[in-house]
Amino acid sequence: MDVYKVFNRKGKFIKNVHIGPSRKIKTLPELETYLRENQLFAQASASFEHRADGWDKLSFIDKLKNLGWQFGSNGELKGTDW
Questions:
Q1: pTM as predicted
Q2: Are 34 and 66 in contact (CB under 8 A)?
Q3: What does the angle CA 39 – CA 43 – CA 49 come to, to the nearest 5 degrees?
């Protein structure tokens, strides 16, 4: 079972989504459809694990930036497909 952290265009954490046979969302394509339909984004939870000292002190949006997500001067994600 895979877990993804779901967030909005402003980088605000919404919820964790679990993907697997016994879950509401069973596959990555289903997750992508859900994200597109709801104008949301996701990052694998595993990306947030085993990080350097100080990682836990960062805000969620700073963690996203550290993982390569880019935000414009208006505070919204840029360079995304939707």
A1: 0.91
A2: no
A3: 155
